Amino acid sequence: MVRSPSVELVHVTKRFADATPAVHDLSLTVYAGEFFALLGPSGCGKTTTLRLIGGQERPDSGEIRLGGVAVQQQPPYRRRANMVFQHYALFPHLTVQDNVAFGLRVQSRRRMPGDVPRRVQEALALVQLAGLETRYPHQLSGGQQQRVALARALVLQPEVLLLDEPLGALDRQLRQTMQQELRRIQREVGMTFLYVTHDQDEALSMADRMAVMYHGRIEQLGTPQDIFSRPRTRFVAEFMGAANIISGQVVEQTTHTACLTTSTGLRILCHTATAVPVGSMLHLVVRPEVIQVLPHDWSWTGDNLFMGRVLDKIYLGEHTAITVALPGGATLRCHLPSRLEQQFGYAASTLVRVGWQAHDGHLLHT
Amino acid sequence: MKSPAAPRWLTCSALGLYGFLYAPLGVLIAFSWTPSEYLLRWEGLTWRWYQALWQHQPLQEALLVSLTIAIPTVVIATVIGTLTALALARARFPGKLLVQGLLYLPLIMPSLVLGVALLLLFVAISLPLGVMTIILAHVAFSIPLTTLVILARMQRLDPHLEEAAMDLGADAWTTFWRVTVPLLRPGIVAAALLALPWSLNDFVVTFFVAGVGSTTLPLRIHAMIRLGVSPMVNALGTLLVILPLLVALLGTRLAQRQV
């Protein structure tokens, strides 16, 4: 199947008053029918990117295409991209029905033929709000307002639906329900969704593909699995919650395995798909949940095994985070299932054995 | 939860303050019902002064003149105020701070100065004094008021609402009429309701710029009082307190129904 591009950004730059550009020479293609997430910390340019596509901002340079047509010079009301705003921006003086019908009514003369009431009904049914047509926004709960905002944009059948942290204002449980709802709706209508969020879990659980942004650029683009388990840069690794980044010099390389020594004198084996030159400095990512923490007198056949002392222990619910000090001063953050940790009952300064397999480590490209 | 009782001194000073504010009005209203020819002598109740008012040609004519001035003033000042507020809240242009500062000036400038200045201006451009010049003068001192009231409302509006309208396909014009104006309506109504009594009440500025045949109600009352005070003025005063109050209450109710 040939995928047709829905949104294309070609070398787009946007600079505000300050010197550093909010979006820097960004190129990105989102394909039709895709659920694409833009993930990044606040100030990384993800919302600006969205607003450039929606037309609320104009780029300084570069091209933006919607369904193959360059739109960067068009005002927002001519673009087939509709936005679900972070705080919904529902019209407080209009009922749910009139909010959803707004776009159809103001555009009817130009390009929105068809039966307005029927399409409003369909959109409200899709977001499961049938029956609330005559309410005003202030009479709805946060989740319901969110659904109205969604219906108001969906009813126009845009080329792409732009979602700006739409679940940010909802509580945790409602957020999870709405995540599933959004995925269901996206599958049902088969529309391109471009979703901006700063929440890693949200991006990982919803997106078909995602991009991590930092300082106005894309740091890494790929499937959620790719980005979670094979971060390309130090920033992505840290942002995706991999707390252990170990720097070391390559002292030996065999097929698929490199051996590093760190400045604190540890020898670490690591799987590598590509050849790495002996003598080069590399960064190794070890996710906290792949590290085993065992009592010091237990034996285990891991590729990398070290003795260490428990420095600190934080209960996180499902997991317990344990910080282990290794000889030489390095520390490792490890996540143990809380049920397991409770059996061992590690106290501070307990001597433990920590270890992981070579293929659980991952070398950064930079 | 029951709120704790206010201390006694606070209650007393509050009552004193309200007494100070409203006692004169009470006296005025009370004496509009007594038949005495002399002010401040109570002789029982009567409708007499209201009936006299009803038949008093000069006062009715003056009221008509006042309304002929107030209604266009309110319309013009509210429209200009809305547009000025829109420009100050949304647009970025050089000298914006200066414009904003100059807007507040007429609010603190003595009416006397404004009256003399306007008179000099009208004479200088040889505009005949009359209803027209009074309207111009009233518009001039009402614009800061309407602008500030509407600006206050506009600054509380979520700018994303206008963005959302544009995003949904409305051009600037449609967005203005279907989103901005409906949301500003309470502010616009409040501005108009404040500008109306300002225009009806004004004496000082009007005194300078009025001409022959443009005697407004305050000017007429002033003229009458100079010849000796009739209790009819009390009756008129009562009506002038109660009618605007009713209009204001109605306006507030209407404004609250929206949004």
UniProtKB/TrEMBL annotation, chain B:
The chain crosses the membrane at residues 12-33, 63-89, 101-125, 131-152, 188-212, 232-251. It comes from Tectimicrobiota bacterium. This is ABC transporter permease. Keywords: Cell membrane, Membrane, Transmembrane, Transmembrane helix, Transport. It comes from the Bacteria. Belongs to the binding-protein-dependent transport system permease family. CysTW subfamily. PROSITE patterns: ABC_TM1. Residues 63-251 form the ABC transmembrane type-1 domain. The keyword Transport applies. It is found in: Cell membrane. InterPro entries: Bact_Polyamine_Transport, MetI-like, MetI-like_sf. GO terms for biological process: transmembrane transport. It holds the Pfam family BPD_transp_1. The keyword Ribosomal protein does not apply. It is a multi-pass membrane protein. GO terms for cellular component: plasma membrane.
